[in-house]
Amino acid sequence: MTGDDGVVHPLKVEVMHTQKELWTGLRWRKSMPQDQGMLFDLGEVRQAYFTMSDTLIPLDMLFIGADGKIINIAVMTVPGNVGPYMSDGPVRAVLELNAGASTRMHLGPGNIVRYKLFGNLAPPKAQ
User: Fold this and answer.
1) CATH 2.40.50.40 given to domain 12-118
2) What are the pLDDT digits (tens) for 72-88?
3) CA–centroid distance for 72 within its chain
4) How far apart, in whole angstroms, are the C-alpha atoms of residue 108 and residue 3?
5) Is residue 115 over pLDDT 70?
6) What are the extents of the domains in the chain?
């Protein structure tokens, strides 16, 4: 990901695909390394609703369109809060990071998440 400040932020992501993985996510985990995240592959473009029930660590949730563009971010979500935390429109995936990471990385709507799921691994060519 590249923040508004132009800095590229590589992350290791754990990808959730199956219904069980999508439901379980980060539930009951006590920590996540700062350079990691969890990417929820929704399998289709749709409205996303997430909860923090049974989640023990505060998170930032990045709602990402099919092209890898961040649509919106739920920042500093509260452990145990049922929410829902939701996308501002149809999205293809949700990336969960430790709370405050999106601010630290200068991420916001319109920034691009590069990953094979979005078909955008190659950076855009300079003009």
Assistant:
1) no
2) 999 999 999 988 999 99
3) 10
4) 8
5) yes
6) 12-118
